[in-house]
Every structure is written in C-alpha cells, then in structure tokens.
Design a protein that fits this description.
Strands 3-2-1-4-6-5-7 form a seven-stranded mixed sheet, with helices on both faces. 49% of the residues lie in helices and 16% in strands. By secondary structure, it is an alpha/beta fold. A hairpin with a 2-residue loop joins strand 8 (384-387) and strand 9. The longest helix is centred in the first third of the chain and has 37 residues, at 12-48.
Length: 407
C-alpha cells in the first residue's frame, strides 16, 4: 500500500475528501505564493513605470472614534508625511467623542489639520457618514481623496505611494493593507493575525486577476472618479466603506491596485478569539450582502469542506480507538493531509512580513482555521452586524435597513 493510498483511505468518500482538501491547499498555496511574488516583484516592476514626481493636491480623511493604541502618535503621523500639498481632516461623530481632546491639541500644532463633526448617522454606517461629512469640508483644490483609519501610523512616504498609481487613468482606486504583529502572542492575537493574512492574500490575488479588493484603512481615489462613480450616493446608504466601493468599482469595470508599499505594520490586535470571530463575521456579512453569489458559492462548500476535514481528525481517532476500525479508512489520512498542507502554506507567511511567535502560530493552525469557519457559519443566522456599538440590519444589497444604538 502506497503512502498516497493510505492517506486517501479506501472508500469513495474519504478519497473525495482527500482530493478536495488537496485542491483547497493548492489554491491557498498558489494565492499565498502569488502574493509574495506580487509584493516582491510584480508591484515593484509596476511601480517603476510610474512618474515619481506625480503628487496631486490631496485631502486625507481620518475618521476617529475613541482612543485606540498609540492614538496621538498615529494622528500626528499623518502630518509628518513627505508630500508637498495636502490637508488632513479628522472627523468624529460628536464633540463628546474621546478622540476630540487629542485632535484639538493637534489642530493647534499644524495649520494643515482640520476637524469636522458629522453628527449621528441615520441611514448608513457611522464611518461612511463621518467621511462624507469630512469630504464636504474638503478644499476645492484637492484632486485626490485619501482615506485612512486612526489606528495606523503611516510611514513618511505613505501618501506619495498610495496616490502614485492614480496617474494611470486605467487605475481608479488604490488600497494599502495592514500587517499585524502580535505583541503578546495570545491565541486571540494569533487568530486575528491569521484572518488578516488570509484577507490580504485574497485581495492581492483578486485585484490582479481583475477583481477589486479594498481595505478601508488606506484607500485613495481621484476626485473626478469619486464624483463620476457616485460614491457619495453609495456611501450615504451603505453599511461599509470599502466593500461598497469595491462593488461599485467592479460594477463599473474599474481597476483597483493593491499598493504593497502601503502595507502598514501595527501591533494593535484584537486580544481574544471571540473578538476576532465577531470581527471576521462582520467582514463576511459584507461579502454576504455585496457579493452574495460568492458568499454562497464557493464560500459555503469550502467552509463545509474545511470544517469537515479538521473535525474528522479527532472523530476518526476516537472511533478507531473505540471500535478497532482503521483510522485511515475512517478518513484520518485526508484530515492529516489537509492540516499538514495548510501548515505548509503558513510556512510561506514570514516571506510576507514579520511573524512573532511563529512556532505557536504554526501549532495553532487547525484551530485558527476552524475559528475562521465559525465566523462564516454565524453569518447564516443573521442579517445584522454590530460595529462600534451600533447594530445595523442589512438589506440584500448591503444598504442599511435599520440601525440601533446602544442595544
């Protein structure tokens, strides 16, 4: 009996699980390997074709809520950029937000800093409402709009890099991403780091092959495209900024570029598995609303396959011990092959960025992947997301049907 025959088992069911699991591993491996190549070679070659002198006047919008880790340093980082002509508009929901005192300190330090108060959102995500309020205050001379979260600290060339591809009229929107480096190495942090890497590889691959992957923590769009696409109208009723803009760009056959020079490193991670599951559930809820076909297929069969293959390992071991049946014939080999294959994919991750606690990260791979599946299956039981203390009930197209505060 060959090793392959042993791992695949003897029944048609175990053989099918083995083949499908290996196909899934091959897909993950290909996407991760492509992202490494894209980050190290493809984008660098693309970037070399751009004119380094391109620097249109920009308005940088930074919506704020509360005081995340390193908040003051993060906000000041947006005013320390190597860029000739830009303004930064910080915006909050209200004057009572905990972020306001620090913002006002910064206003006194730099004339390029501005502050807007949006008021309460009634028909869209509060973040969307905040950004739209800030853009209504943007100066008329700005030719590009850039959006950033307040929990990142941009590098000095961040603004130059994120707008650079916009000199190509075929590129409508650009995006960066974040690289999470766990500070404590807790299971919660490692779980957050894993799903973040998963999304990053999906975005890089999707954007390159003709899709659109955007991360709201760093996005840029020309003002004329913002107006021509009707982004304001879309955001004024949408439950999220990045996924709604992705869908709008895709619908209008516009191109997005992931700018790997704007992958921002941060150690501000979610501390618990429950928090990560809830966060990733919200991301999948956006997929459910804006890309419903993808949420059902291929996401559902993939989730069922992954869940089955991981759960099969302890099930096959227990049944084998209790009944004396062959562990391999019960599908144990298919499960082990998938878990080891998935771990092999994770071995590529340090080529993308720094990976503290990597040994622990590898050992936890089955659990981290299973937590991801829990997030997916939870989206089948709800039409509601909770974001920053607000519950949003979503329509089928991703618009907000109803929002509830304080519930």
């Amino acid at each position: 009996m060959t090793v392959l025959t042993l791992l695949a088992g003897t029944s048609a069911a175990t053989k099918a699980l083995f083949v499908l699991g290996m196909c899934l591993v091959a897909g993950d491996f290909a996407a991760t390997l492509f992202t490494i190549v894209y980050q190290r070679r493809v984008y660098k070659r693309l970037r070399a074709s751009y004119d380094e002198g391109y620097a249109p006047p920009c308005s940088v919008v930074v919506p704020c809520k509360g005081v995340p880790k390193n908040f003051g340093a993060n906000l000041r980082g947006f005013l320390q950029l190597d860029y000739p002509d830009y303004e930064v508009i910080y915006v909050t929901e209200s004057e009572e937000d905990a972020a306001v005192p620090e913002i006002k300190n910064i206003l006194a330090e730099d004339a390029r800093a501005r502050f807007a108060v949006a008021g309460l959102a009634m028909e869209c995500a509060q973040k969307n409402h905040n950004m739209l309020a800030a853009l209504r205050e943007a100066r008329a001379s700005s030719a590009a709009f850039v959006f950033a979260d307040s929990d990142i600290r941009p590098a000095k060339r961040w603004l130059r890099e994120i707008v650079l591809p916009l000199q190509n009229d075929k590129v409508t929107v650009t995006t960066g991403f974040r690289w999470l480096t766990p500070a404590a190495g807790s299971v919660g942090e490692l779980c957050h780091a894993y799903v973040n890497i998963f999304i990053y590889t999906c975005f890089c691959t999707a954007s390159y092959v003709g899709g659109v992957g955007l991360w709201g923590g760093t996005m840029a769009i020309r003002r004329r495209d913002y107006e021509a696409l009707g982004v304001e109208k879309t955001w004024s009723r949408a439950a999220v900024d990045d996924m709604s803009l992705s869908t709008l760009a895709l619908k209008n056959k516009r191109k997005a570029v992931v700018v790997t020079e704007c992958v921002t490193v941060t150690d501000d991670l979610l501390p618990t598995v429950a928090a990560t599951v809830s966060w990733f559930e919200r991301q999948i809820m956006y997929l459910k609303s804006y890309q419903h076909a993808l949420w059902v297929f291929p996401a559902l069969p993939m989730a069922l396959l992954v869940g089955s293959l991981i759960a099969l390992l302890p099930v096959a071991a227990i049944v084998s011990l209790l009944t004396g049946r062959s562990f391999w014939a019960l599908g144990g080999g298919a499960s082990i092959s998938f878990i080891l294959g998935h771990t092999a994919v994770a071995l590529l991750y340090p080529a993308l960025g720094k990976m503290p606690f990597f040994g622990r990260f590898l050992l936890l791979q089955p659990f981290l992947r299973l937590a991801q599946m829990v997030s997916y299956f939870k989206t089948w039981a709800t039409k509601t997301i909770t974001w920053a203390g607000i519950k949003y009930r979503l329509k089928r197209n991703g618009d907000v049907e109803r929002l509830t505060r304080g519930g």
